[in-house]
């Protein structure tokens, strides 16, 4: 009988953003074999209906289950808001980790009492985000900045493009002008912008994302079920519902290594 501990972990996002989470998982749990689906054929999720997003998430979850995945990581804030509760209900015995903007650690970290949030419009408008603010940010001022167009430019793969720099600066400057000393990166795509952001924000400004926290939560869930891998990991596998050649081309810039990308049909 196959050892369940050696089964892979499935990770997905609407595009390449979840690779930032995948990297944190690999860093913390180097023994785990990882599967990644970029649903690039339907990006951005933020402009889709919750029902559509739930249907996509179920299709991807079913694909991972067919691959024998022992756990699921929803490496997308928008998909977590729209579908995590539905997925947990549908698969009650399957370890599942979602994303949420790092409001709690940001509220604890700020010295100026002003926290900025860079996120998609969908995340900022969600009831879940409002609940996080009520729960953890009652003593701080939170300045939110929707960032339309940012995900699409990151998906193009040129993280030094002048258009990307210009758009990002337009979103960051109002947060700095408002006195934010802590900025939440509220989308899994945005950690790829840290080198660019470092050129735009003063050194004392903290940039906070939740990739490492997601990796720790996955570790806890696997430990609870005695599912932590015990042997060497298989090479990660990648699929996309968009053009596999495009992801294959930009993967070295985002993942520091080349891999064959397979087509995800659903």
Word description of this protein:
By secondary structure, the chain is an alpha/beta fold. The protein folds into two domains: 4-99 and 212-263, Rossmann fold, CATH 3.40.50; 103-209, 3-Layer(aba) Sandwich (Rossmann fold). It is built from eleven helices and ten strands. It has helices spanning 19-28, 50-66, 77-90, 103-109, 121-125, 127-136, 150-156, 162-177, 194-198, 211-224, 244-255, and strands at residues 9-13, 34-38, 71-74, 96-97, 114-119, 141-146, 182-185, 206-208, 237-240, 261-263. The strands form two sheets. The chain has a six-stranded parallel β-sheet with strand order 4-3-1-2-9-10, sandwiched between helices. The chain has a four-stranded parallel β-sheet with strand order 6-5-7-8, with helices on both faces. Helix 3 (77-90) links the parallel strand 3 (71-74) and strand 4. Helix 1 packs across helix 10 (211-224) and helix 2 (50-66) crosses helix 3 (77-90). The chain is globular. The two termini are 30 Å apart. The relative contact order is 0.20. The mean pLDDT is 94.
Secondary structure elements and their pairing?
Layout lengths: L8 E5 L5 H10 L5 E5 L11 H17 L4 E4 L2 H14 L5 E2 L5 H7 L4 E6 L1 H5 L1 H10 L4 E6 L3 H7 L5 H16 L4 E4 L8 H5 L7 E3 L2 H14 L12 E4 L3 H12 L5 E3 L3
Parallel strand pairs: 1-2, 1-3, 2-9, 3-4, 5-6, 5-7, 7-8, 9-10
Helix pairs in contact: 1-10, 2-3
């Amino acid at each position: 009988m196959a050892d369940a501990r050696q089964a892979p972990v499935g990770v997905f996002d609407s595009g390449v953003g979840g690779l930032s989470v995948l990297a944190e998982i690999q860093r913390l749990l180097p023994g785990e074999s990882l599967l990644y689906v970029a649903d690039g054929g339907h990006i951005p999720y933020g402009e889709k209906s919750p029902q559509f997003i739930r249907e996509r998430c179920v299709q991807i979850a079913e694909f991972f289950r067919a691959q024998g995945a022992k756990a699921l990581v929803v490496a997308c804030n928008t998909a977590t808001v729209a579908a995590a509760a539905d997925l947990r209900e549908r698969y009650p015995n399957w370890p599942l980790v979602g994303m949420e903007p790092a409001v709690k650690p940001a509220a604890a970290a700020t010295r100026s009492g002003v926290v900025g949030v860079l996120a998609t419009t969908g995340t900022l408008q969600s009831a879940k985000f409002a609940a996080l603010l009520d729960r953890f940010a009652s003593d701080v001022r939170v300045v939110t900045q929707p960032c339309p167009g940012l995900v699409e430019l990151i998906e193009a793969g040129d993280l030094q493009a002048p258009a990307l720099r210009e758009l990002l600066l337009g979103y960051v400057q109002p947060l700095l002008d408002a006195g934010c000393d802590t900025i939440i990166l509220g989308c899994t795509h945005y950690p790829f912008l840290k080198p660019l952001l470092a050129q735009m924000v003063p050194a004392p400004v903290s940039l906070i994302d939740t990739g490492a926290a997601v990796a720790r939560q996955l570790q806890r869930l696997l430990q609870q079920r005695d599912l932590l891998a015990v042997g060497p990991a298989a090479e990660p596998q990648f699929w996309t519902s968009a053009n596999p050649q495009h992801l294959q081309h930009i993967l070295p810039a985002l993942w520091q290594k080349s891999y064959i990308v397979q087509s995800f049909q659903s």
